[in-house]
């Protein structure tokens, strides 16, 4: 197992690497603000497990960090949970990556279909339009299509 120890947000940003399996951050590292480090991670590697450890962090602070994208927060007295927490966070990361991959394949198929396709939401709103439909209906772009459809009574469906 390889690991690196950094103590500033700048050093962290310079060393952040897509090959990392997880990030374990101490809530009270001098010179680094864990929220800044978490924001850098979520922006650059949105799926990497990020776990915060602290000797004296309140539950409210931990929940706030999870709202910002940390997968878990642990007390230094509760490090026996670190292994299970990493396993669970890694599983959720794989699920997010798989979902994104499925969405990308769907999007690619949707855009490349030679037939015109429009996806309508439960309220009759237009969710997606592929390029073939715009071409078939002679609309220059999606915005024009949406403007025209919005003017029809009941939209596309009635």
3D structure, described in words:
- The chain has 158 residues and is an alpha/beta fold.
- Helices cover 46% and strands 13% of the residues.
- It has 6 helices and 5 strands.
- The strands form 2 sheets. Strands 1-2-3 form a 3-stranded parallel beta sheet, sandwiched between helices. The protein has a two-stranded antiparallel ribbon with strand order 4-5.
- Strand 1, helix 2 and strand 2 form a beta-alpha-beta unit.
- The radius of gyration is 23 Å and the shape is elongated.
- The model has no long low-confidence stretch (mean pLDDT 87).
Distance from N terminus to C terminus (CA atoms, Å) equals: 60 Å
Helical fraction: 40-55%
Mean pLDDT: 87
Rough outline: elongated
β-strand percent reads 5-15%
Q: What is the string of helix and strand elements?
A: HEHEHEHEEHH
Q: Count of DSSP E strands?
A: 5
- Oligomer class: single chain
Give the strand line-up of the largest sheet: 1-2-3
Biggest sheet character = 3 strands, parallel
So how many helices?
6
Structural class: alpha/beta
Rg, Cα atoms, Å: 23 Å
Residue stretches low in confidence (pLDDT < 50, at least 5 long) are none
């Amino acid at each position: 197992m390889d690991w690196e120890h950094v103590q500033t947000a700048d050093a962290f940003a310079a060393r952040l690497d897509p090959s990392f399996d997880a990030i374990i951050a101490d809530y009270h590292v001098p010179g680094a603000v864990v929220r800044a480090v978490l924001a850098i991670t979520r922006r650059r590697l949105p799926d990497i497990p990020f776990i915060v450890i602290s000797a004296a962090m309140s539950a409210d602070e931990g929940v706030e960090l999870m709202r910002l994208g940390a997968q878990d927060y642990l007390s230094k007295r509760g490090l026996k949970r670190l292994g299970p927490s990493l396993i669970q966070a890694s599983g959720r990361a794989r699920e997010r990556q798989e979902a994104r991959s499925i969405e990308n394949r769907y999007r690619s198929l949707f855009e490349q279909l030679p037939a015109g396709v429009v996806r309508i939401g439960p309220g009759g709103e237009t969710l997606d339009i592929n390029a073939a439909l715009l071409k078939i209906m002679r609309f220059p772009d999606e915005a024009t299509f949406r403007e025209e459809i919005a003017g029809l009574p009941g939209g596309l469906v009635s």
